[in-house]
Design a protein that fits this description.
Layout (H helix, E strand, L loop, with lengths): L14 H5 L1 H22 L5 H14 L3 H6 L4 H13 L4
Helix pairs in contact: 2-3, 3-5
């Protein structure tokens, strides 16, 4: 699996969010990748569910509080990243 990336669904965004979509996706992606790197580096055999929850928590902690509060990712996708971390497939 390549580096994780966040893509926002434009149909779920208000006009202001649509204008800021690119920079917002960049910030979310950066926070997700940093969280994935930290978790991958410290992975010690935890179950996928724990890794998925930690990935979400650490991604949110890397965001501005207002952005973190509104960040509602597709948890199936987050768990795919967690599975890749557990399997050692994330590059």
């Amino acid at each position: 699996m390549s580096e994780p990336h966040v893509t926002l669904d434009p149909s779920g965004l208000d006009p202001v969010q649509q204008k800021l979509r690119g920079p917002l996706e960049d910030q979310l992606t950066s926070a997700l990748q940093a969280a994935a790197d930290r978790i991958r580096a410290g992975y010690a055999g935890e179950p996928v569910e724990d890794v998925c929850r930690r990935l979400l928590d650490e991604t949110r902690s890397g965001l501005h509080p207002d952005i973190a509060a509104g960040f509602q990712p597709d948890m199936d996708e987050f768990c795919r990243v967690a599975v890749a971390i557990v399997r050692g497939e994330l590059t």
